[in-house]
From TrEMBL:
InterPro entries xref list: Plexin, Plexin_cytoplasmic_RasGAP_dom, Rho_GTPase_activation_prot
Short name of any one Pfam family annotated for the protein: Plexin_cytopl
Superkingdom: Eukaryota
Domain Plexin cytoplasmic RasGAP: 2-115
This protein's name: PLXB2-like protein
Organism: Mya arenaria (Soft-shell clam)
Length: 143
């Protein structure tokens, strides 16, 4: 789905001529994960004919992946013990909001001027006066 429509995750506009190519690529990708061998004939879709050699290579890699997953499956109690361990360690860890905010501020501090300038240029952020509000926050953090 992400290959076919990258705009779901990324903020991009995909032209129609690229979208058609992405459809073909996504179909080939999906077919490469099929566990059954599909025969290719003259009546087969174009993408199967174009990517026939690649499909067989991908399919062999996928089959090897499936075999490795089957061999390396964890026992249910091992997984349960691991999840219990993670749960305990998360419960023992406390989250300090102030420390997290200060670390975030520390990361943005070198870019303060750039961020405020960009916010003052943008109409939406200027209308909401976000640059002034953010500047007030930066001033409070400096105290």
């Amino acid at each position: 789905m992400l290959i076919k429509t990258p705009s779901i995750l990324f903020d991009i506009n995909v032209p129609s001529y690229v979208s058609e190519s992405l459809d073909v690529i996504s179909q080939v990708f999906i077919e490469s994960f099929s566990r059954t061998e599909q025969t290719v004939s003259m009546e087969s879709p174009t993408q199967k004919l174009i990517f026939r050699n690649e499909l067989s290579k991908f399919r062999s890699n996928v089959q090897e992946f499936y075999r490795n997953v089957q061999v390396n499956v964890q026992k249910p109690d091992e997984l349960g013990q691991y999840l219990t361990h993670i749960n305990r360690s998360q419960q023992e860890t406390t989250f300090n909001k102030n420390a997290a905010l200060y670390r975030l501020y520390d990361q943005i501090k070198p870019y303060t001027d750039e961020i405020l300038d960009d916010m003052s240029i943008c109409q939406e952020t200027s209308r909401l006066q976000l640059n002034k509000k953010l500047n007030d926050i930066f001033s409070m953090m400096e105290e």
